[in-house]
Write a structure and sequence with these properties.
With 518 residues, this protein is mainly beta. It has 3 domains: 126 residues, Jelly Rolls, CATH 2.60.120; 181 residues, Galactose-binding domain-like (Jelly Rolls, Sandwich), CATH 2.60.120; 142 residues, Jelly Rolls (Sandwich). It is 4% helix and 44% strand. It contains 3 helices and 41 strands. The protein has a 7-stranded antiparallel β-sheet, with no helix packed on it. Strands 7, 9, 10, 12, 15, 17 and 18 form a 7-stranded antiparallel β-sheet that branches. The longest helix has 8 residues. The protein is elongated and about 85 Å long.
């Protein structure tokens, strides 16, 4: 809501035109002077299908100037073995008459044949070849596949796929596509394999990892836009109507020649990746944590590295093991991922390398700004898990732009919440949690204010006027703040949360602040 109001009421038309460019990613942040600005962001994603198959090494591009390395690292789910007891064949290519769902773009010729000598698994390989006679790879696609009639085909209990692919290094794209029919919610589930490698590579595909966000990067023989089938509807695994293989971006005046093993339906599994690392420019950044499937790390700086769970809830802040973050050079950068893999399972991860451009953003003339829409600024909530001088220290930025350059210091509204650490049904008869905050102290710069109350689990302290506070939860309390409330200065203000007693190990408090300008 705040970002919508800021964009609508604060920025001039030239800025809005830049922000509105299709496909452009930007960040909206306050700089250290308190001015709101946009920063161009380039997000380069790479999926590691299995450590050891070559996908753990890749090249990413930074379109901006050299800058400290930033990245997001997510542990993905693993998949049961290709030859596991519960594996079921989804497509075995034993009969070339069965893949009857064939079509090509204009100027593309495709061929399929069985290969009995160059085989990696399943007793045979499908050779899929396509040639592009046109002058551009754009829109050069070919498709083979099978359609299943009612009652369709079941891939249960599987929710993932396993296959071997022998790449040709052509740079084309292979799309493994699974479809459900319209009467079962109509789904098109695309899964891309970039053919930027040569030789055999084992690939694990999870239905939960659909590549729909890349759909409009290519020209396909089916629609996109706001299609529910592509972007929203889930695969009905008991009713599969089509299994297709599509090649795209076939090189201009060139060809693609690949081999594909039989495709099997497999079950997904949780996995743990211990001590993941990213190596760039001869420097290795080691993350001393164990990631479970769905958990992710966001690295913004040497002192800004956070581990989140699958729901996006903060687990902990920590410092990566590296003396200094490496530089992400302008242009091409070679990156390598490593970890201690789970026993008997593939180590899979998705890495997003983040590079930032120069901030921009012009403000409307003062006469055109309706300041009543900009009188409240909500800060990003701060989750504090340790009172160690790092986790409990952050910045609140006060804006410096106001009508005529004059503005009174804002009133700072505060909410301190000690969240419930366990589900209610698990708490019946349990001992009272040791999670509490005894007489919290909030310091801004060199000044501080104390709230003379003991906050327990599931309680919230709210202070709206910088003078009085009230606690909500199991016990209601109210009182006066102890001390004079600190004043926010223009620009960045250092904030520290402290307590009169050291909290328990499972301590956690959420600090919400709102700056109210009058």
């Amino acid at each position: 809501m705040l970002s919508t109001i800021l964009i609508t009421h604060n920025f001039d038309q030239a800025t809005l035109q830049q922000v509105g460019q299709p496909g452009r990613d930007v960040r909206l942040r306050q700089n250290t002077a308190g001015q709101w600005q946009f920063t161009p962001a380039h997000l380069a994603k790479h999926r590691i299908s299995a450590v050891g198959n070559g996908s753990e090494q890749w090249v990413t591009k930074n379109p901006y100037s050299a800058q400290p390395f930033r990245a997001r690292l997510e542990a993905l789910y693993s998949v049961a073995p290709y030859d596991g007891a519960r594996a079921t064949v989804l497509a075995d290519f034993a009969d070339l008459d069965l893949p009857d769902n064939r079509r090509n773009a204009a100027g593309v010729i495709a061929q399929v044949e069985l290969e009995a000598t160059d085989v990696k698994a399943g007793g045979r390989s499908l050779r899929f070849r396509a040639a592009n006679a046109s002058d551009s790879p754009r829109g050069a696609w070919a498709q083979i596949g099978s359609k299943y009639k009612h009652p369709y085909f079941s891939m249960l209990p599987g929710d993932a796929l396993g296959l071997w692919v022998k790449g040709d290094g052509s740079g084309a794209l292979l799309n493994i596509q699974i479809r459900s029919p319209r009467e079962y919610h109509d789904c098109i589930s695309d899964h891309y394999i970039d053919l930027d490698f040569t030789g055999w590579r084992y690939v694990e595909i999870l239905l939960r990892e659909r590549d729909s966000e890349r759909l409009t990067d290519y020209v396909w023989p089916y629609g996109g836009g706001g299609s529910h089938a592509i972007y929203r509807n889930a695969v009905d695994r008991a009713h599969i109507s089509e299994v297709n293989l599509l090649l795209n971006e076939i090189p201009a005046k060139g060809k693609v020649d690949i081999l594909v093993s039989p495709i099997v339906s497999l079950t997904a599994r949780r996995a743990e990746l211990a001590n993941p690392s990213l190596e760039l420019g001869g420097s290795k950044v080691l993350f001393p944590v164990t990631l479970q499937s769905g958990q992710y790390i966001e690295l913004e700086g040497i002192d800004d590295c956070v581990l989140y769970d699958e729901r996006g809830e903060l687990i902990s802040r920590f410092r990566p093991q590296v003396e200094k973050l490496p530089l992400l050079a302008e242009g091409a950068n070679a990156i390598r991922f490593g970890c201690t893999p789970p026993q008997g399972q593939s180590a899979r991860a998705e890495i997003t390398v983040v590079s930032l451009g120069q901030p921009f953003g012009g403000r409307r003339p003062d006469a055109e700004i309706d300041w009543k829409w900009l009188d409240r600024e909500h800060d990003i909530p701060r989750i504090v898990t340790r009172l160690d001088g790092a986790d409990n220290v952050w910045n609140i930025v006060r804006r410096s732009n106001a009508p005529g350059g004059q503005e009174k210091p804002p009133v700072l509204e505060i909410e301190l919440a000690v969240p419930q650490l366990a589900k209610p049904e698990k708490q019946a008869g349990a001992k009272e949690s040791g999670a509490f905050l005894a007489e919290p102290v909030l310091a801004i710069g060199e000044q501080s204010v104390r709230f003379p109350v003991r906050l327990r689990e599931s309680q919230q302290l709210v202070c709206r006027d910088q003078a009085t506070w009230r606690v909500f939860g199991a016990e209601v309390a109210a009182g006066q703040v102890a001390g004079t409330f600190p004043t926010l200065l223009p620009g960045a203000n250092r904030v520290t949360l402290a307590s009169q007693a050291q909290p328990a190990a499972d301590f956690r408090v959420v600090v919400k602040t709102v700056k109210v300008y009058r």
